[in-house]
Amino acid sequence: MKxxxxxxxxxxxxxxxxxxxxxxxxxxxxxxxxxxxxxxIPGEGDRxxxxxxxxxxxxxxxxxxxxxxxIRESEFKQTIDALKLGTLVHVSEIxxxxxxxxxxxKVAFLCGGIGITAAFSNISWAAxxxxxxxxxxxxxxxxxxxxxxxxxxxxxxxDWFKAVHxxxxxxxxxxxxxxxxxxxxxxxxxxxxxxxxxxxxxxxAMVEAIKKVLAEDVxxxxxxxxxxxxxxx
Length: 233
Ligand SMILES: Cc1cc2nc3c(=O)[nH]c(=O)nc-3n(C[C@H](O)[C@H](O)[C@H](O)COP(=O)(O)OP(=O)(O)OC[C@H]3O[C@@H](n4cnc5c(N)ncnc54)[C@H](O)[C@@H]3O)c2cc1C
Description:
This protein has five helices and twelve strands. It is α/β, with parallel strands linked by helices and 233 residues long. It has two domains: 93 residues, Translation factors (Elongation Factor Tu (Ef-tu), domain 3, Beta Barrel); 124 residues, Rossmann fold (3-Layer(aba) Sandwich), CATH 3.40.50. Helix 3 links the parallel strand 8 and strand 9. It is globular and about 55 Å long. The two termini are 27 Å apart.
């Protein structure tokens, strides 16, 4: 198993309560977009705190690796939020198959909340490498303040990409769509759904609900659906 000590270099606000954490990327650090890794940080006394996260960075970025999370009351989240820049942390075990494949010509990412991280890594990779994959992103959140990577997503332009936001509890001023990712929404926003491969990422309850809609209401075969369950939410 490969392991690295990497230096913590930057924290970035992405949405309300949602932050990205960046670390220097070692030269021999290889990963695929949408994969996840284990990170161990120093806690109180001798305690070592371990969590795993999807990369929100893309492998074509040579200088840093990044993950993004919702800051909650847990020991890990409070500790990483207070971590001093320059601290060395332990990173290991890169896993996961939530990765775009250049043989796929048309895909759709269906994401809820923090599930955007693994999709964002893939979409950034497709943009940077001119992967020639036609991508639709359906991104569900509670309200405007919860939308992570909004500017970056809106910055992906070109015929290859379309993003549609949907909010369950939008606040005043929202002119976009209201509701959840259901069959009607998928049919209207992904009219060529029968030609696409589907990726779903987010908290487990949401991933399971969307998978059921895709399989039972839309009629997508299981072998055309890939999921990443963010267990722990
Ligand atoms: C493949 C994968 C990718 C992930 N990517 C991200 C990401 O990009 N961003 C992000 O914020 N989170 C991601 N997660 C979830 C992350 O690992 C944490 O579980 C989550 O952030 C909650 O951490 P916490 O410190 O707030 O809660 P914790 O205090 O760690 O846990 C809250 C509750 O969940 C339970 N729990 C924690 N981890 C697991 C687990 N693995 N399986 C089952 N139960 C568990 C605990 O027992 C506790 O009851 C991912 C998880 C997986 C499996």
